[in-house]
Amino acid sequence: MGERVTFWYGCNVLRHGDIIHACLDILRAIGFEASPVGGPDYCCGTVKDANQTTAGGMATRTVGKLNDRGARVVAWCPSCHSHMHVFMDKAHDRHFDMSYMVELVHANRDKLAPLLKNRVPMRVMLHKHVGFNELVPVNRMVPEILSLIPGVEVVDAGYAAPGYMCASFAGMPAALQDMHTDTVRAAKALGAEALVTTFHQCFREMVGLEAAGVMPVHNYIQLIAQSMGLPYEDEYKAWKRAPDEAMAMIGPERIAKVGVEFYERAILPELKKRPTLSK
Amino acid sequence: MSTRPVIGQRLKEFQQSEIDRILGACTKCGKCFEVCPMARYSKAPPTDGKAVVPGVLAVLRGEQGTPEALGWIAVCTRSGSCVPACPENVDPKMMMRLARMTALGGRGQPKQIDMKEDRDYFDRVRAFAKLQLTDEELKEWT
């Protein structure tokens, strides 16, 4: 039996059930006994900059709950991973080791490579950021993982966007527009057929480029899953590509779980949102 | 007298110790501002680093920040380009994060910058969880 690990996936990746499920399959396939936790009850508190009493309480609670699990924690979310190292484990003693998903997969490339059986013929450019890369060198590791996939060719323009992920640009539309424009321009100049993101936050923002017909966008886990033959469908992308039909795709049973009013007020506008590019 | 721990107390003590360290170490040379890829998005009038950094330190002391400092604090996205540029190993990324928390009113001082609050943030996360996970997964994973 492999090492028991807690897969701490975070909050916002819950938009992307295919990524969570694929991560679990990948972890199990490379020899880890992974059990997942996440959502608001395991929030790291990084979104509470405007209330450090709440942030401290969330950090104490979440570190305590992860301590109780008695296993190494594998973080998916860069915000959670970073916040744990910078603030959370100062709020409450941490009794577990931590790895970031990218570094664990990278360290187990020898186990992953034989599982990548399907060709994924695609010339891709990794959408990179500065910031988190100093904690975990994802800008080097993700292309090295992608290069294991038969058919994938990774091109690199040397461009890394400012900020540690796209979501950190919330409320700065001009900066977000510049970043998307520079990224697309670099990818097209290199003849890339698709953009690949490391983080789900960037995928959420940039998949709007695909919905707008600019170019396809994937998360690196989705390409691994495709090559392994994992069956998960990227529903978020399907909803994003056809927001007016998303309610029908989701179906009445699931819509009833969130409520029509909440869906129309808080989810549909996100599905309709499209990035804008500079001329 | 109550012996219950104060919520978030250890985190606040850590933050205060970092603020004390930063205030003691920073020489206000302004190199962190000069290399920042986000400074050009500040809504404050353009200026140089030596003029901006004292305003950031004022925020950390709980004082009113200058418009230039608050403009820079508002656009920090934690790029970290400032960290290797600092000749005193101050960790300007930490300086800016703590200044942001303080300017947002998160550490008990008056709010000096606004942040659009997403009141549906956690409800939206819970809603997507209901759309993407089975009932059993919801019960066991979240």
Task: Give an overview of the whole structure.
The complex is a heterodimer of chains A (279) and B (142). Chain A has 279 residues and is of the alpha/beta class. Helix content of chain A is 49%, strand content 15%. Chain A is built from 13 helices and nine strands. In chain A, strands 5, 6, 7, 8 and 9 form a five-stranded parallel sheet that branches. Chain A has a four-stranded parallel sheet with strand order 2-1-3-4. In chain A, helix 2 crosses helix 3 (78-91) and helix 10 (235-241) crosses helix 11 (243-250). Chain A is globular. By secondary structure, chain B is mainly alpha-helical. Chain B has one domain (9-117): Fumarate Reductase Iron-sulfur Protein, Chain B, domain 2 (Orthogonal Bundle). Chain B contains eight helices and no strands. Chain B has helices at residues 9-25, 31-34, 49-60, 67-75, 82-85, 92-103, 121-132, 135-141. In chain B, helix 3 (49-60) packs across helix 4 (67-75). The mean pLDDT of chain B is 94. The chains are: A alpha/beta (279), B mainly alpha (142). At the A-B interface, strand 2, helix 2, helix 3, helix 12 and helix 13 of A face helix 1, helix 6 and helix 7 of B.
